[in-house]
Amino acid sequence: MTTPVTNDWNERIALAEQMIPLIGKLHRDNNVVTSVYGRLLVNCTDIDVIKSHRYARRITDQELPLAKTLPILQELVKMELGTASIDLGQLAARFDEEGGDLRAFLDRELAAVIGTASETKRTDVVLYGFGRIGRLLARILIEHQSVDTGCRLRAVVVRKNSDDDIVKRASLLRRDSVHGAFRGTISVDRENDTIWANGTPIQVIYSSDPATVDYTAYGIDNAIVVDNTGRWRDRAGLEQHLKSKGVAKVLLTAPGKGDLKNIVYGINHGVIEDSDQILSAASCTTNAITPVLKAVNDRWGVEFGHVETVHSFTNDQNLIDNFHKGQRRGRAATLNMVITETGAAKAVSKALPEFEGKLTGNAIRVPTPDVSMAVLNLTLEKEVTRDEVNAYLREVSLNSVLRQQIDYIHSPEVVSTDFVGTTRAGIVDGLATIAQGKHLVLYVWYDNEFGYSNQVIRIVEEIAGARPTVIPQRKELDEL
After folding, report:
1. Whole-model pTM above 0.85?
2. Which segments constitute the Glyceraldehyde 3-phosphate dehydrogenase NAD(P) binding domain (predicted)?
3. Where in the chain is the domain with CATH 3.30.360.10?
4. CB of 157 closer than 8 Å to CB of 126
5. Alpha-carbon dihedral 267, 271, 274, 280, rounded to 10 degrees
6. Which H, E and C letters describe 167-180, residue by residue?
7. What's 214's DSSP letter?
């Protein structure tokens, strides 16, 4: 496979157009998600395919020819594959090194998922609440759905606010001022309180009491309920969901209090046990900084540090000055920078116990609707250089088990809106890194809505036993 990169745009378009139906068939029929060096190919256009291959130049110093990945896709659709996440870029690079027969190579590389299609069962998912996070979770779940396996969005539970409530809910799912239009079609069946999204029927259930909903009446059973209202954050409050018929597990999209396990996927999801009925997905900030802190601590050790988050305003603030039970949050969110508290620094230790007592934190809310930044000011056990840290974190973002959590950027032009829609929990800005002796400052961007929502879905899939097998296998941090 020594095909040179073509400069003929029309030829690239033609190759991409051949790839799109193959990518779609793998997703629909086999629940296989493909990517190119971590750039997902889901509901993609021909331009998306070309851009993902061009992205490869950041890893291999040259663009990946589409003519190298097309033959791989053509073979994959012939194979009896089960649920998997397959990186076409890495497979192409490995085959370049080995050579030989392509099908024999793929048989070896994908042995773990050949013939496993029947092993993933369907799990019903219910979204309790349909606000900013709830609607993004719905979008992701709908986009992930393929064959009748894995996690299936079955219902959303909300309080009825008007006679045309369901129409307004559907409209908010269809259009989003930050994240753009829904990718697909949405219609409403008012008679049956159902929103149809890309062929998926979503039952809208009206209730203000999590303990009294009979989900089995809607054909829903053993469901995972994702509570994104933030109203209840301790075991006693969230246990109300388990009193409803048809509920097996509850996941909170906020920091859990008391003895609840706070899960940051990629860091401590291994502590989830089958007996756990209530879990927390921690906060967006905790998800953004914990993977980076683990990577740094594993390599150089962290003695102590301070986390300052520059966070976009949220719904709990006032648009204009008015009474608010919280300090300073009553002042106009769109006009002011607002100093407020954050529990993210302390919450890190719930996922990484070795950070207990090592971090302090504070937050500044700023007049942007989405995308935030965490500044990690760390004192290390060993001396480091800026280039050393950046090279390591870049490698972590490309080849490690934390690839879905950590991304890396090295550009003098990026600003916050460039990170709207990222699926990673946090993105290290390499140009902003400061290192002097044992003192290290890292700047980590994060989409506090969409990036966090993807982390939540990973936990849902983990609970359901529906996480895809990753091919090729990624490296542990100590193997880098």
Report:
1. yes
2. 123-284
3. 285-448
4. yes
5. -60
6. HHHHHHHHCCCCCC
7. B
> Which residues are known to be catalytic?
284
Amino acid at 434: I
Residue 265 pLDDT > 50: yes
pLDDT on residue 261: 96
- pLDDT tens column, 137-159: 999 999 988 666 689 999 999 99
**CA–CA distances in Å: residue 47 to residues 28, 66, 92, 140:** 21, 12, 20, 21
Sequence ranges of the chain with CATH classification 3.40.50.720: 122-283+455-479
Residue with tokens 């994240």: 179
Alpha helices, DSSP H, located in 243-336: 284-300
Coil, helix or strand for 141?
A: helix
Instruction: Say whether 475 sits in a helix, a strand or coil.
Output: strand
Q: What CATH number labels 122-283+455-479?
A: 3.40.50.720
Q: Does residue 347 contact residue 286 with C-beta atoms inside 8 Å?
A: yes
CA distance linking residue 234 with residue 281, whole number of Å: 13
Is the pLDDT at 371 greater than 80? The verdict is yes
For 111-139, write each residue's pLDDT tens digit. 999 998 776 678 999 999 999 999 999 99
User: H/E element holding 144?
Assistant: helix 132-144
* Angle (CA) 462 453 85, round 5°: 50
d(CA 398, CA 406): 9
Q: Which residues contact 307 (CB under 8 A, 6 or more apart)?
A: 285, 289, 342, 344, 345, 359, 360, 361, 362, 374, 375, 376, 377
Q: Which neighbouring-strand residues pair with 377?
A: 306, 441
Among candidates 135, 121, 125, which has minimal Cα distance to 241?
Answer: 125
Q: Are 341 and 363 in contact (CB under 8 A)?
A: yes
What one-character-per-residue DSSP string does 312-347 give?
E--TTS-SSS---SSSSTTS-TTT--EEE---HHHH
The domain over range 285-448 is classified in CATH as 1.10.10.10: no
What token pair was written down for 395?
A: 């490698």
Task: Return d(Cα 307, Cα 361) in angstroms, integer.
Answer: 5
